[in-house]
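Aim 2 progress. For TIGR02611 family protein, the working sequence is reproduced below.
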Amino acid sequence: MQVQSSETGDADVMKHDAGDRSEIPERRTGIHGWLDGIRSTRTGALTLKIVIGVIGTLMVVAGLIMVPFPGPGWAVVFAGLAVLALEFHWARKVLDFGKSTLHAWMEWYKRQGWLVRAVVLVVTVAAAAVIVYVGLRTLGFDVIAMARQYLV
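Predicted C-alpha cells for this construct:
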C-alpha cells in the first residue's frame, strides 16, 4: 500500500515505515481473530473459557456415551477435544496424542495381510452386534426370541 504525505508532513510515512519494522504480529483474521477480540478483556476471556469448556465437555461426554454403539462416537469425542483445545492446552495435548495413536493404528492396519484385516473386521462387527443386542435387551426387546418366533 502506497502511503502519501498528508498535511501532517511525513508523519504518516514514518508511522507506516515503523509498522513495517515492528515485531508485533498483525491481527489475525477469521475465527482466531474473533476469539482474540473476545479474549482482549478479562470478562470476555473468562466467559469464553467457561462457554468453550461447557460445550467441549458436553461434546466429549456425549461422544463417550456413543462410543459403544455404532455411529460417530469417536468423531464426536475428537470434535469435543478440538473445541476444548481452543482454550485449554491440556486438551490440545490429548487431541494430538489421540490423533497420533489413531494414525499409528491405521498405519499398522494397512501393513497387515488380508487375514488379519478379516479378523479385525469380524471382531468389530461381532462387538457392535453384541452391544446393539445388549442395548435392545435392556430396552425390553429380545431380538433372539423374536427371531426364533419367526423361524419356528
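Helices lie at 11-21, 30-39, 42-66, 73-84, 89-111, 114-138, 143-151. This observation will guide construct design in the next reporting period.
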